[in-house]
Amino acid sequence: MSFLSKSTVLLLLVLCCTSFTSTEAYDALDPNGNITIKWDVVNWTPDGYVAVVTIYNYQQYRHIEAPGWLLGWTWANNEVIWSIFGGQTTEQGNCSRFKGNIPRCCKKSPTVVDLSPRTPHNQKIANCCKGGLISSMVQDPANAASSFQLSVGSAGNTNKTVRIPKNITLNTPGPGYTCDPAKIVRPSKFLSADKRRITQALMTWNITCTYSHFLTHKAPTCCVSLSSFNKAIAPCPASSCGRRKNNTVSRGCVDPKSPHVPGPGHKNIITPLVQCTSHMCPIKIQWHLKLNYKHYWRVTIRITNLNYHMNYTQWNLIVQHPNFDNLTQVFGSKYEALTSLSTTNDTAMLWGIKHYNDVLMQAGRYGKVHLELLFRKDKATFTSKKGWAFPQRIYFNGDSCVLPPPDAYPLVA
To answer: In the chain, is it the N or the C terminus that has fewer CB atoms within a 10 Å radius of its CB?
Structure first.
């Protein structure tokens, strides 16, 4: 019997760690999804250039929700921002070396945020000012990008002297996205409003950012309970999203009957403040087998927001179930099949209807939305027995939800 040397064992450990790091951001349901930041130099100025920066969301279902994106970088030299439209730098920095005309931002590592839709027209550019919200590509492709324009000074003013920013970061508003170094690409082309003339950028570089759930959440953010018409129920597993300390009300957990439950004015606070439950999840999803007809069966899905600090704008669900090939009708939501890796339709994207239920209100009386699915029965490919009427996986806003263990599934006859 031979033994591995210490150096071989060390090499294997390094390879294992490397393999995990390179795949942790991989999303099997959206393998090509990413956020691409395009930096287009459109004009030269006496001491620099004017650029339009656009954030494109090429992810099918993961979007950027309130309070919105923050984009940061580090200048290669001593560049400054003279002016900005469609966005805002969060700090001015030290501009003491300038006399008279003061730049908008002199920080070595600036951060830019989006403006609100109520911004005056003379401070806007095309595709800006959405409050930092960027939709996913499937849910609302017309709003899957956000732009701002900035005038950069103390920089080169030719494509041979301009230096590309480094250390690009995209927060939404917490961590989650890792951005690759900027790469110079073929200059972008722009079509005029009358579609009769094409212009192009003087210089363009791209930054690709990929999402990793491990960077965003240390614990799950949603759970699933299962029920059927015969009242059998598999609840959310205990401590799905965290534990209650000593089974009492504690920080980050509020008894819904408490007179100190926060009101709507706290909705923009990022830190979750949830109802005290056995599972401690901000979002609870119930899959209920409602009716079993001779040729059809009907499911009700209820999404409950237990977070007192958050309204979920443009929420969406990803559901994996083997019978989506026989989905007949959807009530209360929009639907799109996701078939990126398979020719069979077993994955569905569901999201709210605009001005009806596309905003999931914070915990309380209105913190719920309902939708229903009607399936046709196909005895050759599907049976409702032994738990097959229930989903294999559910994602809320791109995050995987904790389901009950298979042996807890209700046995539907």
So the answer is: N
pLDDT tens-digit readout, 85-99 = 999 999 999 999 999
Where b means 16+ CB within 10 Å and e means fewer, 40-61 reads: bbbebeeebbbbbbbbbbebbb
Query: What is the mean predicted confidence (pLDDT) over 102-122?
Result: 96
Indicate the class that CATH gives domain 217-243+270-408: mainly beta
In the chain, domain spans: 30-215, 217-243+270-408
How confident is residue 196, by pLDDT bands cut at 50, 70 and 90? very high
Exposure string (b/e) for 247-261, b if CB count within 10 Å is 16 or more? eeeeeebbeeeeeee
What residue spans of 212-310 are helical by DSSP H? 213-216
The CATH class given to the 30-215 domain equals mainly beta
Instruction: Determine the Cα–Cα distance for residues 57 and 111; give it in Å rounded to an integer.
Output: 19
Query: Which amino acid type is present at position 403?
Result: L
Same fold: 30-215 with 217-243+270-408? yes
